[in-house]
Specification:
The chain is an alpha+beta fold. The protein folds into two domains: about 120 residues; about 90 residues, Elongation Factor Tu (Ef-tu), domain 3. The protein has five helices and nine strands, in the order H-E-E-H-H-E-H-H-E-E-E-E-E-E. Helix 1 crosses helix 3. The protein is globular and about 60 Å long.
Length: about 220
């Protein structure tokens, strides 16, 4: 079987991304026009995802200015209306909406984002299961890592596909073999910790301290 060069796959990805991005922008513009004058107002919005590879990776965020405004939006039914309008607008704009899930329309406030350390920290942490602190070789289990649990830890499951993102930039895909949350006995202020082992053969050298274990969204 002939292996196609990376340039071929990148060209196809870039072409699909170029086609889909304006569709998403038109859909969001339609939502914002429909929400004009509504309270609380949408302070900002953004979208991201490797939609050139697969349209289902699209994630859309609507941001409010304060935590109070976000709570008001939820209690008034505005958030549900935004979700419904967004899905409808994507479909009307001919986005492959059959692959787009409702939970990928997200909400936050600027106050919430700043409390998390700013935009870069807030959006990065949404997908981190564990940040590696220590790694070990354990007979019968291979490499085991321990570290600080991230926001995506509650969704992590045995067999789930993950990506290991080392500080060097190297990325490895594998699956969770075992995971366990640890109790923090020494200090109540210590970050919650846990441990993970991998299905595939991963060496300790491939997961140095600082490696982020990230969920692979489907």
């Amino acid at each position: 079987m002939k292996t196609l060069p990376n340039e071929y796959w990148y060209a196809a990805y870039a072409k699909n991304e170029e086609r889909l991005r304006p569709i998403v922008e038109r859909a969001i513009d339609s939502v914002l026009r429909g929400e004009a004058g509504q309270q609380p107002p949408i302070h900002a919005h953004l979208f991201y995802g490797v939609i050139g590879a697969d349209p289902q990776h699209l994630v859309i965020w609507y941001l409010f200015k304060t935590d109070r405004e976000k709570e008001m939006s939820d209690s008034s039914g505005q958030m549900k209306r935004l979700v419904d309008h967004t899905r409808s607008a994507l479909k009307d704009s001919k986005y492959p909406s059959h692959s787009f899930r409702q939970e990928r329309i997200c909400f936050a406030s600027e106050e919430q984002i700043q409390k998390a350390g700013g935009h870069r920290q807030f959006f990065r942490m949404r997908w981190v299961i564990l940040t590696v602190v220590e790694r070990f070789q354990v007979d019968g289990h291979g490499t085991v890592v321990t570290g600080h649990r991230g926001d995506a830890w509650p969704k992590a499951r045995r067999g789930a596909e993950i990506e290991l993102r080392a500080p060097s930039g190297q990325c490895i895909r594998t699956r969770i073999r075992e995971l366990e949350a640890f109790r923090t006995c020494f200090s109540p202020d210590a970050p919650p910790s846990g441990g993970i082992s991998f299905e595939d053969k991963v060496t300790a050298e491939q997961v140095p301290s600082g490696t982020e274990i990230v969920e692979v969204t489907q």
